[in-house]
Protein 1
Amino acid sequence: MKQKLSAMIVALLWSLPAFAAHPLMTDDTGTQGKGKFQFESNIEYARDNENPAGITEKETGGTVAAALTYGIVDNIDIIVCLPWEWSSLSENGAIISDDKGIGDTSVEVKWRFLECKPQELSFALKPRMLIPTGNAQKGLGNGNISGGVLLIATKEWEHRALHGNIGYTHNSYAMEQDNAILKQDLWHASLAAEVHITEKIRSVADISIDSNNEKKPDPNRIFLLGGIIYRVTDNFDLDLGVKAGLNHAETDKTMLAGLTARF
């Protein structure tokens, strides 16, 4: 049972490192600017139901994450994210496992290395390191330092934008059971769109395909996400979103909400 929960938590955590314009999972090339900060706090709640061999299994889990971004120079940001996670597994209504606690801390650097201003097209790289602050025995972290990198592209128009990501993550697991059931090398590709409905409201959509983090012969995980970002002020946003799995490998449904403050 711990194997199922470990796989679910890794799937949840995969969506966190990008810390795009929440609720989007696909990141954009935007940076804060030299000396400026951004604080984000997001919550995600996931639910998955299965019926193997006549047994009704229900998995629920979630993450509350806080991230602080600082603009080192105009085109380079450093981001630190700390998540708190919970997960539970029940069979036919009986609780089999219930774990909660701090997850692994991520440290990222976003470098916008190319801008084609006449075409409003830009590219960025985002290397990432995971520091093992979570309890690996409970499935709340890898137990070892892990890392990856994300290539980001953004194309902008007057009232809309398109973002694309291609990413790679190498996970190093401390627990033997995690090494037995979970892949170390994961790939990610996603595409997102933003449309400004009004001066304060943006509608967003996201589609993503990720390597299945479990070693069993399952297809890649695919999801579709839709949401709204509401700009309360120039420096404060609220957002809501829903993520739906498009195949059985992906979590059935995830609800997302968050806030972003810039200063």
Note: The first strand starts at residue 37 and ends at 50.
Protein 2
Amino acid sequence: MVTEIRIYIEGGGDGKNSKSLLHQGFSNFFKDLKAIARSNQIKWDIIMCGSRNNAFRDFRNAFKTYPSAFIVLLVDSEAPINKPPWEHLKLRDNWDSPNPDNTHCHLMVQSMEAWLIADIEALKKYYGQGFKEKTIPTNLNVEKISKDSLEPSLKAASCNTTKGEYRKIQDAAKLLEMIDVAKGRKASYYCDRLFITLTQKITEIVENKQNP
């Protein structure tokens, strides 16, 4: 029986402090789901893994180490998506999943920065005076924005602010705490898909506990 949820996420670099920063950001981004899980005595863990290869390695190993957990992989897609998640990662990274069920595989399309620019108001509030909003792509579907445009646009928009040019770990961690999840879900199918999957899994675990 599944009794816990473990999410293995790409990002955070190699350092303990940088992983901790981004862990805090994602913890806040998922805070409502985490609260529901823990109120139902479901263990909830987010694991920042550094590189995408390390994330996949840790995710794969978790199937052996945590047999009672629902294991989730969350990585950048690095490109547009036109296939189911595992097929996309097989073609791009040559990864063979220990579980072919796509509910275990989730993508930030085309990278984490897409979720950040889904909430322009949060960006403006965080960076303040000097933020150049017009350099941020305005596509209502952020998944259509090329990965090669996402981080450069954030750097260009923020370079004249007091906080300075966008820094992938430090600023992303703070922005993940601030952005409106509803806006992220509306602008990104795969962000919404992740929240739907986790909500359904929590409900399933609760029902199984009530009807063993």
Note: The mean pLDDT is 96.
